[in-house]
Amino acid sequence: MKIDEHELLTLVQSLYAYEDIQLIDIPDIDLYMDQVTTFMEKKLSATKRNRKDKILTKTMINNYTKDGILLPPKNKKYSRQHIILLILIYNLKQILSIKDIDILLAPLLKASSETDCDPQLWDKIYLAYLDLKQDDFDLSGDRQGEQLKKIREKTGDFGKLQQDIELLLIVLLLVNQAIVRKRLTEKIIDEYFDL
């Protein structure tokens, strides 16, 4: 199957097509665990590869609390801050280990538990993340189109295998980008956070 620039851009856009959970969507009232898992499943289901996959389970939430990457609930209820943290953890765990997430979040979790902490800290972090994510998406579509042009230049003489080779090269480049970004992430954690 041949993929053209428009189809590749459509694939990239489909990854961003799901609507991020906006701050206004996050309830201001505290939720019980079942309500949290239902909320996350409903809002993030478009990010699942397979319909049977779970976004978040009770066991995951309990383990995140035990691992120290999620503050304990108050009276078995989870606040807006908990929901934001769970969304961020969900995204981080796509690439990072729980240990790396712990290292990354520890200074902020400590600061947010202090009495003089800005009560809007996690809202501000989340809003900045959503804004930067949108900027990255805008740049990503352009970059993928440019890479496809270069791939076409290099595969023009492969005859009937050209389409399969183009797809292989697209996947190899995407995997390489993921590897480089993962390694860079790990280097930042290893070098700039207290282990």
Automatic annotation (TrEMBL):
Alphabetized InterPro entries for the sequence: DUF1836 (IPR014975)
Pfam families: DUF1836
Name under which the protein is recorded: DUF1836 domain-containing protein
Native species: Syntrophomonas zehnderi OL-4
